[in-house]
Amino acid sequence: MKLASFDIFDTTLIRKCGKPGNIFYLLAHRLYPNDRAKSEDFLLWRKNAEREARRKHPGKDVTIDDIYSSNELKGFDEYDKKELIKAEKSVEAEQLTANPAIRDIINGKREQGYTICFISDMYLPSTILKEILAREGCIKEDENVYVSCEWNARKSNGTLYKKLKKEL
Question: Judging by DSSP bridges, how do beta strands 13-15 and 96-98 pair with one another?
C-alpha cells in the first residue's frame, strides 16, 4: 500500500483567524458580545482549563470534554458544558478553510493510487474534523482521520505514527 498522511491544522486546513488561540477569543466574544469583562473572564478560563486538564490527566491526550470538565464553570451560569462545547466546535468549524495548494497535492496523490489519511494532535473528535475536511473538499468518505485524543498518542512525539503504522 502507498500511504500519504496529511496534517490537518495549519497544513490541510488553515484558520481564517490566524493563530489557534484566536478561536478562544472569538468564542468568548460570541458567548458574551455585550459584556467585555465576562468575555475576558471566559477567555482566561478557557486557556487555563486546557492547561488544567492536561495537568489532571498526565500521560493522556485530553479531549474537549476533558477540558470543559477540568475546571468549574463558575461565573458562566448562562451556559452548560454541552452548550459551551458546541459553541467552541462551531467557532472552530467556521474558521477553518482548505489550503488549496495542499488540497491539490492530496488529489494528486489519490490519482497516483495512494491511500490518504489525515492526522492531528488535537482535542476535537475525528468526526467533526472529518465533516470539516469533507465540506472543504479535502477528504473522501472512505478515508480516515486520526486524532491524538482518540488514540492517546501524539504526532509530535511519534507515538501516533507508530500506532497508525500497526493499524494501517
Answer: antiparallel
